């Protein structure tokens, strides 16, 4: 029987970055607004911003983070918490318009032992889901199948957000 490989070369940057403890990619993105498209930063608000997860679990996987570098929700101001939750709402709306998911997983991981890849800068994951989107790939080989390129969906979400009133993003 011929063995077949599924290549995911973009994951090497994530794997190599796990050992690095200096710096925060979210803070780096915040400091370089001129690179928003390259960094896949979708929207910035007064208190928080939205960026694509470059190592997604599913198509359209977004991260919402406060503009301040804080490690825990208990350190967030009421304005930051409200803004992040409004962005969750707006992201769900624009993702629904763009790719029509049947549902969403919205969650947070506090501490590396809880699954946080960046435990020093709190962030919310928004993961679009579809009925039947769980398949053998993840179960058998710890592999996720992403059905659309990040740059293509980035452009689609920017276009929709410019046409659609999204309260938190439009401020």
List the helices and strands and how they pair.
Blueprint: H1 11-17, H2 25-31, H3 36-39, E1 41-44, E2 48-52, E3 62-66, H4 78-99, E4 103-107, E5 124-129, H5 136-141, H6 150-163
Antiparallel strand pairs: 1-2, 2-3, 3-5, 4-5
Q: Nutshell version of this structure?
A:
The protein has helices spanning 11-17, 25-31, 36-39, 78-99, 136-141, 150-163; strands at residues 41-44, 48-52, 62-66, 103-107, 124-129. With 171 residues, it is α+β, with helices and mostly antiparallel strands. The model is unreliable at 135-141 (pLDDT under 50).
- First-last Cα distance: 58 Å
For this structure, the CATH topology is: HIT family, subunit A
Percent of residues in beta strands: 5-15%
**Secondary-structure element series:** HHHEEEHEEHH
Range of helix content: 25-40%
Low-confidence stretches: 135-141
Shape: globular
Q: Count of DSSP E strands?
A: 5
Description:
The structure is a single chain. This protein has 171 residues and is an alpha+beta fold. The chain is 35% helix and 15% strand. Strands 1-2-3-5-4 form a five-stranded antiparallel sheet, with helices on both faces. Strand 1 and strand 2 (48-52) form a beta hairpin.
Name a few traits of the molecule.
171 residues, alpha+beta, HIT family, subunit A, five-stranded antiparallel sheet, 5 strands
């Amino acid at each position: 029987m011929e063995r077949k490989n599924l290549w995911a070369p973009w994951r090497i940057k994530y794997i190599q970055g796990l050992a690095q403890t200096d710096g925060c990619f979210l803070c780096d993105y915040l400091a370089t607004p001129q690179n928003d498209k390259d960094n896949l930063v979708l929207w910035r608000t007064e208190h928080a911003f939205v960026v694509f997860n470059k190592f997604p679990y599913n198509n359209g996987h977004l991260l919402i983070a406060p503009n301040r570098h804080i490690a825990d929700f208990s350190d967030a101001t009421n304005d930051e918490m409200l803004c992040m939750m409004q962005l969750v709402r707006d992201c769900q709306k624009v993702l629904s318009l763009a790719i029509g998911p049947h549902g969403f997983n919205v969650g947070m991981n506090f501490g590396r032992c809880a699954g946080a890849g960046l435990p020093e800068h709190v962030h919310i994951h928004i993961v679009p889901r579809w009925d039947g989107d769980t398949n053998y790939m993840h179960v058998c080989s710890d592999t996720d199948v992403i059905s659309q390129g990040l740059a293509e969906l980035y452009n689609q979400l920017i276009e929709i957000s410019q046409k659609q009133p999204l309260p938190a993003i439009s401020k």
